[in-house]
Amino acid sequence: MNKNLLFLAVVVGLMSSAMSVQALPILLDFEGVGNTATIDRFYGGGTDSQGNSGVNYGVIFNGDTIASVDADAGGTGNFANEPSPDTTMTFDSGLAVMNVAGGFDTGIAFYFTAFRDGLVTVYDGLDGSGDLLTAVALTAQAFDGCVGDPDGAYCNWTLRGASFPGVARSVVFSGESGTLGFDNVTLGSATPLEPVPAPPILALFVLALASLAWARSRL
Ligand SMILES: [Ca+2]
Ligand SMILES: [Ca+2]
After folding, report:
1. Ligand found nearest the CA of 82
2. Distance between CA 186 and CA 92 in Å, rounded?
3. How many Å lie between the centroid of ligand 1 and the Cα of residue 79?
C-alpha cells in the first residue's frame, strides 16, 4: 500500500470510529452534573442547566429531571451510600423522561432509593410513546434506620435490572416528586456497569498493596 492510500485508510478509519454510535452498554453515574441542575443534554452533546457537560451518549433528559449532590459533599441531597458518590438523579414533577434517539437494546439496570413506591417503564418510541418493552416496579424502602456518609435519610439503594426485546428509545421514571432517587443507570445490559475507580483510589490501593508486601517482607 502506498503512503497516500495508507493515509486515506487511516483518515477513513478515524472518521468512521468518530461517527459510530457509542458502544453499549453505557453507564450514567451523574457525576459532574450541577447540584439541582436540570440534567437536560449533559449526556447528549450539550449541557445541564448550569453549563456542565459530560460524555455525549445521545441521551437527553426532560426538564423535570434534576441532579442532586450529597449534602455531605456540599450539595443539598439528603442521601447516603449512593452507588457512585456524590451525585444522583431525581425529578421534581410526577416523572422524568430520558430519551435515547439512537436506541439501546438488551436491557437496563439502575440503583434506586425510595420513600414512596415508583415505577420505571421502557418504551420503543420517544417520550414514552410506542410499545411498552418492560416495566420495573419500585418498592419504598428508604427510612429504616440505616446510616451512611455520614448523614442522609435516603440511605438504602437497591439494584434492579430488566431485559427486554427490541430497541428502546425512552425510559420513564415515575412516582411522587422528591421521594425517589436513581444512580448508576446502565443502558444496554440488565446487569450494571460499575464505575471505573478514580486514579487516586487506584493509587491508594497500589500503595496499600506495596505496604502489605513490605510488611510481609519484614516478618
Ligand atoms: Ca450523605
Ligand atoms: Ca452518582
Report:
1. 2
2. 22
3. 5
Q: What is the pLDDT of residue 143?
A: 76
Beta bridge partners of 162: 108
Domain boundaries, the chain: 24-212
- Is the pTM higher than 0.90? The answer reads no
Domain made up of 24-212: CATH architecture: Sandwich (2.60)
Determine the distance separating the centroid of ligand 2 and the alpha carbon of 67, expressed in angstroms: 9
Over the stretch 159-215, which tens digit does the pLDDT of each residue have? 999 999 999 999 999 999 999 999 999 999 999 998 776 555 556 555 666 655 655
Mean pLDDT for the chain? 87
Exposure letters 81-108 (e unless 16+ CB within 10 A, then b): bbbbbbbbbbbeeebbbbbbeebbbbbb
* Least distant ligand from the CA of 70: 1
Q: Is the pLDDT of residue 13 over 50?
A: no
Q: What is the DSSP letter of 17?
A: H
Contact 30, 88 (CB under 8 A): yes
Cα 4–chain centre separation: 43
Residue 79 sits at φ, ψ, to 5 deg, of -140, 165
